[in-house]
Each structure stands twice: as structure tokens, then as C-alpha cells.
Amino acid sequence: NAGVTQTPKFQVLKTGQSMTLQCAQDMNHEYMSWYRQDPGMGLRLIHYSVGAGITDQGEVPNGYNVSRSTTEDFPLRLLSAAPSQTSVYFCASSYTEMNTEAFFGQGTRLTVV
Amino acid sequence: GESVGLHLPTLSVQEGDNSIINCAYSNSASDYFIWYKQESGKGPQFIIDIRSNMDKRQGQRVTVLLNKTVKHLSLQIAATQPGDSAVYFCAENLSGGYNKLIFGAGTRLAVHP
Questions:
Q1: What are the tens digits of pLDDT across the range A66-88?
Q2: Can you tell me whether residue B84 is helix, strand or coil?
């Protein structure tokens, strides 16, 4: 099994551009989430989904959209990139929303110039 | 790969010694407390969790202690090995159902031969 796969690994955007960070898991997990990680800070929850067709906001949702059309995929969209969105983004999944063991992808380093 | 924060507190230990990583949390309503390990270039990896009604839990070479009176969590690693070198995060799983992990800023563990 591949686990949680994120693409791309690195991305540079210009301010105002939009893009989608991809996340896919092959473990049939119901719960998926997106975090951002900034220097000196822990991971902060952006959006999460408890199953296909259901999404909700986390701690820092502004500037990001998500959708969950299938169990496997949970893409994160940046609508209009800003330098403040420069960060490392991690996608995670767990069997259900009650499981504390989350499986993380390798991350996407995004730089907005 | 992806790197973690550059200005984290660092704990330096000799190989074979025991390590103790500490964490202070803020939310008394958390159901679970969890420790994650993040190696350079990788996403966080689940180590162990402890439910809020427990004060100690042991795993393989690791022990987590929870002191709710002073809102303190610690991770003890026995016979620390070079492979234990990583950044360690504590996280709280807020009560109320959905798996909203609130992460601490992290501690870097450096193991020296």
C-alpha cells in the first residue's frame, strides 16, 4: 500500500495564482484532513472531512477550499495565493474521525512569491 | 523533502541514555493526548496516545505520562538510538467527536553516538 500520497512535493506560485494540492489515500479511511506547518509552530488544521461528500473548516480555513467526491481523494485548493500561504502542507487520514492515529503524507512545500 | 521548524527547542542525548520530552497543554477538555515523531523530509508519524482518564501508558521503548493537575505531558524514550533523532510533537484531540488534533510547536531530539 502507498498510504497517503501528496503531489506535488514542491511548488512555487506567484501572488494571485490558484492551484490544487492533491492528496490520495488507499487505506479506505473515512477521515481525511489538511494541515499547514510553519517554522516554530505546530501543525494547524485547515479543513477536514469525515467521509465522501462531507467537509468542514478547521482552525485556519481562510483562503482554502476542499471537496471530497470520493473516499480516496481530498484535494486542497488555493483560490488566490498570498505570501502568507507559504508553508509546508500535510494531508492526513485515519480510519474514522474517532481514531487518534493519523497517517500523514510526505508534505508539499509551497512558496508564494 | 520537507523540513520542520528551524527554531525549535533541542534535547541532546547520548546514545543509550533515556530521553524525556515534555509538553504543556492548554485545553482541559481534550479526550486524548498523542505523541507524533517527524523525521527530516517526512510527515509526522504516530507514536503513542493516552486517554485523559489515564496517567501512564507504555509502548515499545516509550512511556507517556499525563499530569492533568499541571496540564503536563511527557514522552520517555528508553535506550535512545540514533534512529530516534527527529522532532517530536505532542497533540491534543479535542473532545466532541471529530478528530481535531491541536499540535504543540515540537521539540527536536538529537542523539549523539
A1: 999 999 999 999 999 999 999 99
A2: helix
